[in-house]
Write a structure and sequence with these properties.
The chain is an alpha+beta fold and 183 residues long. It folds into two domains: 107 residues, 2-Layer Sandwich (Beta-Lactamase); 60 residues, no CATH class. Helices cover 30% and strands 34% of the residues. It has six helices and nine strands; from the N terminus they run E-E-H-H-H-E-E-E-H-E-E-E-H-E-H. Strands 2-1-5-4-3 form a five-stranded antiparallel beta sheet. Strands 6-9 form a two-stranded parallel ribbon. Strands 7-8 form a two-stranded antiparallel sheet. Strand 7 and strand 8 form a beta hairpin. The longest helix is centred in the middle third of the chain and has 17 residues.
Length: 183
């Protein structure tokens, strides 16, 4: 791991297609074990919405893009983007470039190594039982209105006790949705 914390940059055009990504994009995708699906050559020209699939999260990002494009003022917010081995606390800035396109800057603020229990949990998420995870704070939905860290999910979830492996469905929790709506 480098001594400096990575900053991932990418830009979209007026049709929300990815225009360019920086070198850290590829390194970041590799550390997330994304394979070739997020390789820079694979994403250029593709709609941003191919990578933000949850409808409520798409709605928030569409609103933020309108805000940035209409006002010309940047928007900044904290979020988590964990990898299989690390919890990553980040800050995203969305702003317009001089050419009128929109630039996303995701600055890593802090990195914390995951526990062995969490690492085993992330490896288990490759199956059919759905588990919802907030793409902003990375908490897991335990039950309606209740979200918690992975260790609580392991202790309390009936889904993980089933014979079938689980898979993560990315979305946004109520707390993060409310915070994003206030931007």
């Amino acid at each position: 791991m480098k001594n400096t914390l990575p900053t991932v940059r990418y830009a979209i055009d007026k049709h929300d297609r990815l225009l360019d990504v920086n070198e850290e994009w590829g390194e970041f995708a590799n550390s997330n074990e994304a394979g070739t699906t997020l390789h820079p050559d694979s994403v250029i020209g593709k709609p941003l919405w191919n990578y933000i699939r949850d409808p409520s999260l798409q709605s928030i990002y569409r609103r933020l893009l309108c805000l940035v494009r209409d006002s010309g003022k940047p928007v900044e917010f904290p979020f988590r983007c964990d990898s299989p081995l690390f919890r990553r606390y980040m800050c995203m800035t969305i702003l317009t470039r001089e050419d009128g396109n929109v630039l996303f800057i995701s600055q890593t603020q802090r990195v914390v190594k995951r526990t062995e229990q969490e690492i085993r949990l992330t490896r288990a998420f490759q199956g059919f039982q759905p588990i919802r995870q907030c793409s902003m704070c990375n908490l897991f939905k335990i039950r309606d209105g209740e979200w918690a860290e992975a260790d609580v999910l392991v202790l309390e979830s009936k889904v993980l006790a089933a014979d079938q492996p689980a898979t993560v469905i990315w979305g946004i929790c109520e707390h993060c949705r409310d915070k994003m709506a206030a931007l």
